Amino acid sequence: MRITNKMMTNNVLHNINNNKNLLSTLENQYSTGKKIQKPSDDPIVAVRALKLRTNLAELSQYVEKNIPDALSWMDTTESSIDVVNEILKQMNSYCNQGSNDPLTAKDRNSIVTNLEELKQQIYQEGNSNYAGRYVFSGYKTDTPLIFSEDESSYTYEITEPLSGEDIDIKFKIVNNVDINAFDKDNPGAFDKTMPNQIQIYRMRLAYGNLEDGVTVTYTDGSTDGDGNLIELPLTVTEKALTDPDAYHPGEDDVYFIKETGELIYGNAAYEKVRNSEHINVKYTKKNFHTNDLRPEHYFNCTRTNEDGTEVLNFEKQDQQIQYEVNFNQKLTINTQGHEVFSHDIGRAIDDIINAVNNVTETEEKINEVKKMLEDTNLTPEQRKALEGIQEQLDSEFTLRTDIMQATFAGGLTDTVAMQDKVNVALSDLGGRYNRLLLTQSRLEDQKVDFEDLLSSNEDVDLVDTIIKYSSAETIYNSSLSAASKLVQTSLLDFL
């Protein structure tokens, strides 16, 4: 085969160009630290890099944003629940003191004042927020759990689900002594009936100071043709708190006392519903006070503004806020208000305050009678009548003191029950928090592994690249030197 000068020249130029391309490639790798500059350089490396970068971006989103945000939300929630737990412990201590110790008027007033302040504080914790979002309000993160101020511009029609287990056995005093009825001119006409204690069956609703009208239905287990429970109506009579018979219903009667938000059952009416698992009470409330729990977070209800132009329906739902904390893994970060805060504790404190006020009222009446007995101008009949009234008041004081202590004991039971509820919520939150920490630790390890894989796939070994670059440079220079010697010889040299 004849080798021409042109063939040799072409081969030299081709080899020089290849050596120059290799040198250029190594120079780019050396200056950028990357194996490829464009996908066509190595499609396999490029595809693998895209997958690794996508995975690493998702891991970074979880580790640097989602998980820290979730942990901060849960830290805020845990802090509030811890405060609630501590407040309940203090309430428990006061109720224990009130149920066991003989209390002076000063002691009673001190306990009531402290319990009222603690009640306000415990509900204030319900408005805890993280980054402007209320943590206990479910999906309604822009709506506080409680009313921050008195509210009367809306009317709520509330359906409160209860059961026979929500009916308490309580004691009330009848034949209370009314010293205003004492007539000095006719002392013998004063009612000499001694106060006595009766047992009542009471269902305490979530709110007091309600509007007129209430509807009560219950189920006794009977079903219709489709297997649905049949709701049976109860006839309810509205009674004013000042009515002497408000807490003394007939056998089949159910009384509604709107001032206190109580349903009082007669014996037969109680027997009818005490085993019912579903008792629905529908009522209306307009005037809310600061720190009252908002009904929309707890009940199915309808809210209407004053002129009736805005009507909103709220349905009680399980509202779990979930964050994606891993590939196809979501975690519930919120604790809902009804899991921690209930109306029961506030209503229990109201019961204690009313019981203490009743004892104080009787003491004031006793002191007033004692002052009347100090009058030296009293006739024997008047003195005898007043002494009889004093005996009645002493009996009333004893009975009301017993009821007050029993009410403190009931508050003790309520605080313990709420502590159990709070501890369950705290335990559930702690379990989710620990899961999140474990997920965070695992993802941080994965992030390091993916960064190593990405570096291994994309980045060059600089030492190896420098050696190759030096070798390529030597080869390139050698090819140039060889070419310079080759092209010097031509046909003219042989003529």
Describe the structure.
With 495 residues, the protein is α+β, with helices and mostly antiparallel strands. Helices cover 51% and strands 15% of the residues. A six-stranded antiparallel β-sheet has the order 7-6-11-3-12-13, with no helix packed on it. Strands 4-5-10-9-8 form a five-stranded mixed β-sheet. Helix 1 packs antiparallel against helix 7. The protein is elongated, with a radius of gyration of 42 Å. The model has no long low-confidence stretch (mean pLDDT 87).
Query: Taking Cα atoms only, what radius of gyration do you get, to the nearest Å?
Result: 42 Å
Our count of helices gives 7
Summarize the biggest pleated sheet: 6 strands, antiparallel
Cα shape: elongated
Proportion of strand residues: 5-15%
Q: Care to count the β-strands? A: 15
Helical proportion? 40-55%
Structural class: alpha+beta
Give the topology string: H per helix, E per strand. Answer: HHHEEEEEEEEEEHEEEEEHHH
Residue ranges: pLDDT <50 for 5 or more in a row?
none
